[in-house]
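Task: fold both queries, return tokens.
Query 1:
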Amino acid sequence: MNVGFDDDEGLLDQILEQTREAMARLREAQTALDRIAGEGKAADGRIIATSDGRGGITELWFDPRVKRLDHSALGKEVLTALQAAQSDAERQRQKIVSEALEATATMPEPLDETFVRRRVEQVTHEILGK
């Protein structure tokens, strides 16, 4: 079997293209992670919380009717909304990460010195006719 340098160039071109595609997917995933906005509601929608992809609370909204709740009930409802927002954001984050990992799972193994050494030996034997 005669495997020439053109085959190696094709392999390297293929690896380079797969790497570019994987990097583009990872950049898209990073952008999506930065845009996460998890939402949580409580008290029949009278409390709405929003969380970013890192679990930080970015917004907390209260309908004026929540003033009717006592302090203990209000605290529990706020906590429920905050936790729901963070859970929603985490679910979104996991989905984005999972899809990114799945998209990059088909990356070829990196070429190492043994690949290069085998190729040099193979080409040397072909040239010398051994």
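Query 1 returned. Query 2:
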Amino acid sequence: MYDWAELRHFRYLLTILEKQGFRVAAEELHTSQPNLSVQARQFQENASVRLFRKSRNGRIRPTETGLAFIGLARLLLETRDEVIEALIAIERGEIASVRFGCTPLVDQSLFRSFCAGHKEILPTCSIRPTHGDTAHLVEEVLAGTVDTAIVTLPLKHPDLHIEELRRDRLVVCLRRDHPLASKVALQTRDLQDNLAILYHPQRHPDAHERLLELLADAGVKVEEYSHASHPSDMQTLIKEGHGFALIREGTLLDEELTTRPIAGVSWTVDTAVIYHKQRHPKTVPILVRKFKKHLSKELNGTGSDMITVAVQTSMTVQKRPPQSAAKVPEQLALLMESK
């Protein structure tokens, strides 16, 4: 559809906009100013866009479209480089197998889809799955014994690339025969003295600490509680009458159990893929881009809005309901929204 657009057009125009002039851009690109002028004019005419204006002193000033072009062109050229690096690594036989990790609180169907996505890129590559807690998998990714992992947030580390994938609402899990199960939604006050089963603090200390903060902010004080190291353990404790638990919405439930949302707040479990910034199979960045695009299409198919997130803070107050994510500057986990 846009066969007239070539990668060189994006590189040329990006340099013109970044250097704010044709002469400096021509020197940077080792080409002539007339050639740059022709390429810039042809691209803008074919696309029916205006990317810049010339000021009186001859400096280039990007338009609103031009400012958007800068970020998009960088993304396109970055993807080009990632694709070429992946092809070179495959040709050299550097990716015979990959080791992918997953934590217990992650939707296992998400992990399976992630693994299947790599098979689509490189069908002959074997995948070695491994399971563990977030802290354990982070250590293995940093050590190089695991190539990439899907974990629950919050998480910060300077050597890790962290891409948030999805947000799932946190709901209350309780027995079907409990009197509060007759309610469509529970109030936060219903959690007091009933919420008595939590994921083991040592499995994800940062998430545990933040969850207790969110509960306290909502007026729920949890003093004594049972520990569970896996979602299935949580369900067993609930069935045995030890109290309620908070679980990821969509978790496969025992037939004796049910879930209810919590009115007045939106708490989410946020899922991200992590890999080492320097040491990783060259197919991984392409896989992550492809997988996030797939998740985006799934969201659009269900009519949900998509928001973008990236990597820095852990849990915070948010003005939008939990949903899947794509890419901007803040990493979130177990978000709370006061309605």
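Both queries returned. Flag for query 2: Confidence is low (pLDDT under 50) at residues 303-324, 326-339.
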